[in-house]
């Protein structure tokens, strides 16, 4: 009892006034709420929305209708109307056209001209971060069942991901698309064998897509809702024994990068955080970058155009 009293008096005599302390605690929890807006009382959709309702009145642009229905590489980029004129436009004008079939998936036609290949498959879904899982789950199913099962490889990327499709094709040539493959940047937590980062983009083989669309998609217990779409898809695939491939090169440099050039150069996270998040510890400085780089995330439209110019347009003169 005396101990309690002493502690109580100590608190009262504390140099930091109690109201200030309380205010600080409330403020910190508010900041935390801003960082992680997914409070448990949010009314989230946790069972798969009906595909018939989701696909009601989907618009397919003329440019998307003209794209090939078979080939080696199918690519879809998920975007939202807010980024149509910036990120999406740049992706369409740069790397997306180098896929055999490349298009945008979004929720409406706002700003998008008819020459842009896109479809509005998210028009009946909620545009919240927490519900991204439904976009991914439905996209993978939709691509295989409603667009085509006749591609070898299917890439999902974000509107701020830049992909060097030639390097992707070269790398995929060492895998067999009739076996289940799940290829991207391996994240470590939540799952024993990890999952592929959604932002760096990931590729599923035809066989992995088939298993997803014909078995996993229909089974709510194997393919459960997750507030992190990439973790959710990773768990779903793991339930069919499909695990992420190790994609670093012989020198341990990552082919798929989940952060931009400067962040990768500087080491992204502290080594303790990296230990928590990443399956392979990414390298730092210039030695982090492989000549076989396939994708990089958090790329602004400006950097995307600079990359496009330096990789495909600017010629280095051979005369001195
Ligand atoms: C498209 O969606 C955005 C955001 O959801 C909205 O602000 C905009 O008005 C919509 N545009 C059209 C043409 O429906
Ligand atoms: C959108 O969110 C609301 C509640 O926030 C929910 O009732 C509804 O089912 C969701 N719709 C879809 C298609 O996920």
TrEMBL record:
Claim: RNA-binding is one of the keywords in the record: no
Keyword DNA repair tagged: no
Residue ranges of domain Fringe-like glycosyltransferase in the record: 73-239
Keywords: Glycosyltransferase, Membrane, Nucleotide-binding, Signal-anchor, Transferase, Transmembrane, Transmembrane helix
Pathway: Protein modification; protein glycosylation
EC number: 2.4.1.122
Chief location category: membrane
Subcellular location: Membrane
GO CC, one annotated term: membrane
One Pfam family it belongs to: Fringe
Recorded topology in the membrane: Single-pass type II membrane protein
Gene Ontology terms for molecular function: glycoprotein-N-acetylgalactosamine 3-beta-galactosyltransferase activity; nucleotide binding
Transmembrane segments: 12-31
Family named by the database record: Belongs to the glycosyltransferase 31 family. Beta3-Gal-T subfamily.
Identification of the protein by name: N-acetylgalactosaminide beta-1,3-galactosyltransferase
Organism of provenance: Steinernema carpocapsae (Entomopathogenic nematode)
């Amino acid at each position: 009892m005396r101990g309690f009293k002493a502690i109580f008096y100590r608190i009262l005599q504390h140099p930091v006034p109690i109201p200030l302390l309380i205010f600080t605690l409330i403020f910190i929890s508010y900041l935390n709420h801003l960082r992680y807006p997914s409070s448990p009382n949010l009314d989230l959709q946790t069972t798969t929305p009906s595909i018939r309702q989701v696909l009601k009145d989907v618009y397919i642009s003329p440019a998307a209708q003209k794209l090939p229905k078979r080939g080696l590489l199918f690519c879809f980029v998920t975007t939202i109307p807010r980024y149509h004129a910036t990120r999406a436009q740049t992706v369409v004008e740069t790397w997306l056209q180098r896929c055999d079939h490349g298009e945008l998936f979004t929720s409406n036609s706002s700003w998008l001209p008819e020459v842009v290949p896109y479809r509005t498959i998210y028009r009946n879904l909620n545009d919240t971060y927490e519900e991204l899982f439904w976009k991914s789950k439905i996209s993978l199913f939709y691509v295989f069942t409603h667009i085509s099962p006749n591609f070898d490889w299917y890439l999902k990327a974000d509107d701020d991901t830049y992909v060097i499709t030639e390097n992707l094709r070269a790398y995929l040539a060492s895998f067999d698309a009739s076996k289940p493959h799940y290829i991207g940047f391996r994240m470590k937590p939540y799952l024993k064998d990890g999952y592929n980062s959604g932002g760096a983009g990931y590729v599923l083989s035809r066989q992995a897509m088939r298993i997803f669309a014909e078995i996993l998609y229909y089974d709510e217990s194997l393919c459960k809702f997750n507030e992190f779409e990439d973790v959710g898809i990773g768990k779903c695939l793991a339930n069919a024994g499909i695990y992420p491939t190790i994609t670093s090169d012989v020198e341990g440099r990552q082919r798929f990068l989940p952060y931009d050039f400067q962040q990768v150069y500087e080491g992204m996270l502290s080594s303790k955080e990296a230990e928590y998040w990443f399956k392979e510890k990414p390298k730092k400085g210039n030695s982090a970058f492989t000549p076989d780089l396939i994708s990089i995330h958090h790329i602004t439209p400006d950097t995307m155009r600079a990359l496009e110019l330096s990789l495909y347009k600017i010629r280095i003169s051979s005369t001195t």
